[in-house]
Amino acid sequence: MSTSSSNQETVSQGLSGKRPFSDFQDQASYSKYAKRIVNDVLNLKPGENLTIEAWEHELPFAKEIKLQARKLGANVLLHIEDDDSYFRLAEGGYEEILGQVGKHEWSLLENSDAYVFFPGPADAERQSKLDAKKRKEAQAYNMQWYKRASKAGVRGIRIRTAYVTPSRADMMGFDLNKWRENTLDAIDVDYQKIQKTGKKLKFMFKHANSMKISAPNGTNLSMDLSSLKPHLYSGIMANPISYNIFSCVMSIPGSEIDVVPKARSVEGTVVFDCPVFSGNKRIEGLSWTFKKGKLIHYDAKKNLDIFKADYEKASGDKNKVGVFSIGLNPKLDYGFNQDFHVEGALTIGIGSLGEGDRNKTDYQFIATLSNANLTLDGVKVLESGKLLPL
């Protein structure tokens, strides 16, 4: 998409204020974010191999990462996907072909030191209309990709600006420009400071025996943490992370600390004040009640049927807590479907989540609380959703 001279002038003034989506097509406007990614997030070195896989709507950002990585002396390959080809195949009965990966592409992955992925397609509404089974077949390579990337020690990141498209903003009712700007702004953070805070939290969680969560909305939950290992995703991928095969890829912007509680120890009720998005609908006021580690009751103020439909169809350990996390990114805002990474956000996931996917089920679901109080062995860590000085 071409950018007019007036738009070029707007971009040169920075990424503030309201602007049309087309302004984000200027490659140079991504310079500081690309530098953050290659220097601070990936810690890319001269001679390392970087692969960038980008859908075409994110080409300006992808090209700037390629440029900055080459300036460092890294070897870079840029692989492009496009909506038109994807939908012509997906809607034309060729989903099995979409799910295939050739040995040349596997070789590329396995010989990469770092991997940057901009997800797609851009037209989320059109994709949502595809048959669920066909969508799954079109991504049949997914598990194999993570297994190979993890085995190869790839440092991977998934850049969340790729989700910020006009189609998805319309579906979810978001202000496109505010969403885009907040997502970009949250890339430009002090990752070393986040890591320092995360390491302190990790130490506290590692040595704590019990955790209690409360909130004015009726949340009162407790769980046993003794002898468990917390996992930190600070945003720095200087070394590959190997908690499980999926941890080789980190979302940027992101940052969180994850804990998997003792299986039968979760007791009480949590009422989530952040909505959970499903297409153009929102589940609001979702509540879960646990007894001996199992979900025994659920409710919601709005659109309970969305949660109920998938949950009731699922089998296995769908009713067990898989992970608990605290968000660590100080610049992310609530309300843009990335709440779980906001600093101070408390998220609980049920089903196949957490280290090693201990729960045996294909089902997973996460929801977030923004105003939680949290204590570890009686020591306050969160108060009204604010991370206290450690």
Number of strands: 20
What is the percentage of strand-forming residues? Answer: 15-25%
Strand order of the largest sheet: 14-13-10-6-5-18-19-20
List low-pLDDT spans.
1-22
What is the terminal-to-terminal distance? 47 Å
The radius of gyration over CA amounts to: 21 Å
Can you count the helices? 13
**Number of discrete domains:** 2
- Return the structural class: alpha+beta
- Largest sheet: number of strands, sense, barrel closure: 8 strands, antiparallel
Rounded average pLDDT: 90
Could you walk me through the main structural features you see in this protein, from its secondary elements to its overall organization?
It is a single chain. By secondary structure, the protein is of the alpha+beta class. It folds into 2 domains: 181 residues, Thermophilic metalloprotease (M29) (Thermophilic metalloprotease-like, 3-Layer(aba) Sandwich), CATH 3.40.1830.10; 179 residues, no CATH class. 31% of the residues lie in helices and 25% in strands. It is built from 13 helices and 20 strands. Strands 14-13-10-6-5-18-19-20 form an 8-stranded antiparallel β-sheet, with no helix packed on it. Strands 2-1-3-4-8 form a 5-stranded parallel β-sheet. It is globular, with a radius of gyration of 21 Å. It starts with a helix and ends with a strand. The N terminus is likely disordered.
Q: What's a concise summary of this model?
A:
31% of the residues lie in helices and 25% in strands. With 390 residues, it is an alpha+beta fold.
Descriptive keywords:
13 helices; 2 domains; alpha+beta; 390 residues; Thermophilic metalloprotease-like; eight-stranded antiparallel sheet; disordered N terminus
